[in-house]
Amino acid sequence: MSESGDQRRRRRGPVARITNAAAEAVDVNAMVESVDVDGVVQRIDVDAVIQRVDVNALLDEVDVNALLDRVDVNALLDRVDVDRLLDRADPDRLMERVDMNALMDRVDVRAVVARAGVAEIVQESTGQVAGSVVDAARRQIAAVDKIAGGVALRAVGKDPRTLPAGPASLMAGFTPDEKGRGMVSGHYAGPVSRFLAFLVDFAVVFGSYTLMASALTFFLSEVLGLTISMNTASIVGLVALVVWGFLYLFVGLLIAGGSVGKGLVGIKVVGADGSPIRGGQAFVRVLTYPLSFLIFGLGLIGIPFGARRLAWHDRFAKTCVVIDWGDRPAALPAPLTAWIAQHNAAEQG
Are 253 and 197 spatial neighbours (Cβ–Cβ below 8 Å)? Predict the structure, then answer.
């Protein structure tokens, strides 16, 4: 038969009492103090302990998210001395370890340039700078033209304010822009701008003709060995000059309503009503162009003194010349615009 619980407790009672008495008699603190911790640690084989640690199993037990949640990043960054860290960094050693050739080999320069739009930026900037310089010169020409034309009209008893400034279909008015410059796009071109355009075209025609004639003469005499008499050369040269001048003016009018000189100055040939010039008008204008220079240039008198600034060849072809700067508005300098406005107001008052 098995012993009852009371019998087991009675049989173990004396042992328990002895054990408790012995535990109470032991001074645990004194026992711990008597232990040589250094000796115990020295007897521990750390390598053997580490080898028995299963790192993978240990890491599996670590909750990384919970660990990161307990990290105060702001407090950690506050404790970092950035200046001291940078002072300890050696930029020279860092740069020595960088393989610049390998780095540049991995950079697609064409793709970088294409994405940055460098070509478009350079083209746009160059065009803007060139356009600004040309427009600045054109404004000065337009200003002198406005003054000279006004003086010429008043000299023959005409009031510029009562005359049409340009074809009705092209008139942009004279209202100043945000910079105070009066708009003159579509206004009749005066004597100064037309004279400057003539000088440029004269230089272009004779300069290009001289180059072509010299090249042709060299080819005929030096390459082909031909000898041409002075009389024959003079006649052929004169005919070639006339033909070249005619083609230069005619083709320019057909394509752009002008020429190199007119384009630089900022003026354009249009129909009398402001419409684009037609082929027939261009032909008649160029054909009758020399007539305006006959009798000491009598056919040019209408440019400074006429209401619509027309020469004889303009009247024959039913054309006129207006101020035109292409896709940019033509404008006078702001000071001249203000002076004209004050002068007109004073005369009206």
Answer: no
Instruction: Say what angle helices 279-287 and 230-256 make with each other, to 10 degrees.
Output: 140
CA–CA distance, 14 with 12 (Å, rounded to integer):
6
Is residue 141 assigned to a domain? no
Residue 241 corresponds to which tokens in the numbers above? 């000059």
Distance (Å, whole) CA 2 – CA 4: 6
**Is 6 within a domain?**
no
Counted domains in the chain: 1
Q: What pLDDT, in 10s, does the model give residues 133-157?
A: 888 899 999 999 999 999 999 999 9
Tokens 């003194």 appear where? 305
Give the whole-angstrom CA distance, residue 191 versus residue 141: 10
Cα–Cα distances in angstroms (integers) from residue 283 to residues 31, 277, 289, 342, in the given order: 128, 10, 10, 43
Tokens of 97: 């370890």
Q: Residue 254's domain spans which residues?
A: 148-348
Asked whether residue 95 is assigned to any structural domain, the reply reads: no
254 in any annotated domain: yes
Handedness of CA 66, 72, 73, 77 (dihedral sign): negative
Interval 293-326: pLDDT, tens: 988 899 999 999 999 999 999 999 999 999 999 8
The answer to whether 186 and 323 have CB atoms below 8 angstroms apart is yes
